[in-house]
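Page 47, continued from p. 46.
Same chain as before, 133 aa.
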Amino acid sequence: MRRIAYSLLMIAMMPLSAAYPQPQPPQPPPLAGAIADGMPFVIQLRPGEDHGTLIGGATYFGQYNRDSHTFTVSGPGRRDDGVVIPVTATYGGADPLAQQLSVWGALYEFDGRGNLYLYQLGGRLAGRVSLRR
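Result:
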């Protein structure tokens, strides 16, 4: 009887994780993981759609810094007087593992295929993001 009671007590004290495997959290797409690891990336905005100082149709080059949780992005920017100048800026406020990018303060989201969406416009397609080769 003691053996049975002892066996039942051991089963009752067993952690649930040992008895039932816990589901693993979903893994981010490879693109998100690579950007989060600091791989350089390229953004190609859709032609004809400027986003603030970002110029539609232009190409931007960026990299995420895991230590400071910031994105540094370089490319052409349009000043208030219409003159296009080279700009490099660093901003935070986005999480690449959540498939987000911060580009000059604008929040973008992307999917596993590299489609880039402007968050402030309700997720409208804004361009493409890929790893820099």
